[in-house]
Design goal:
Elements: E1 2-10, E2 18-23, E3 45-46, H1 49-60, E4 68-73, H2 82-95, E5 100-105, H3 114-120, E6 125-128, E7 149-152
Parallel strand pairs: 2-4, 4-5, 5-6
Antiparallel strand pairs: 1-2, 1-3, 6-7
């Protein structure tokens, strides 16, 4: 898996102060997408064990009270991202007590594969659905267009 951007301190992509990872690779290629540079799977940087360790360390750093991890992109549920994202969210769940996990995906909850669903079974919140430029609404919180749905599964906090 590649990632495009990493923000160890982020207050825009989910509630509270967060760690945010923008992965590379998206099959949806939504018209009007603000993050087109993340569409290619080979964009950005290789996601290494060192980067995974950095995310865990940043989430557990007590100097900044971080609420959780945000995964966006590209698409974290892209089939070629699933193995690395699953490993990461399992590790966050095991090693970062009390941190929530939010994930944005163009896939609908109803169309997930078994492998993608394994990730969703671990996270707290899924924002699903392709960005639809015709349904854009800048007043929405945590999503860009009216068709997208925020699924609250569980919250650790």
């Amino acid at each position: 898996m590649n990632y495009h951007n990493y923000y160890p301190v982020d207050i825009v992509n989910g509630p509270g102060t967060r760690v945010s990872l923008f992965v590379a690779g998206c099959v949806h290629q939504c018209k009007g997408c603000y993050n087109q540079s993340t569409w290619r799977l080979d964009a950005g940087h290789l996601f290494t064990q060192e980067m995974e360790d950095k995310i865990i360390n940043d989430l557990n750093d007590t100097r900044i009270k971080r609420r959780g991890l945000s995964l966006s992109g590209g698409d974290p549920l892209h089939p070629q991202n699933v193995a690395a994202v699953l490993k990461l969210v399992k590790r966050v769940r095991q090693e970062c007590a009390g941190k929530d996990i939010w994930l944005w995906s163009g896939y609908l909850l109803s169309e997930l594969t078994i492998e993608q669903q394994q990730i969703v079974d671990i996270i707290d919140v899924l924002v699903d659905g392709k960005y639809e430029q015709a349904q854009r609404n800048p007043s929405l919180v945590w999503k860009g267009s009216e068709n997208q749905i925020i699924h609250y599964f569980k919250l650790n906090n």
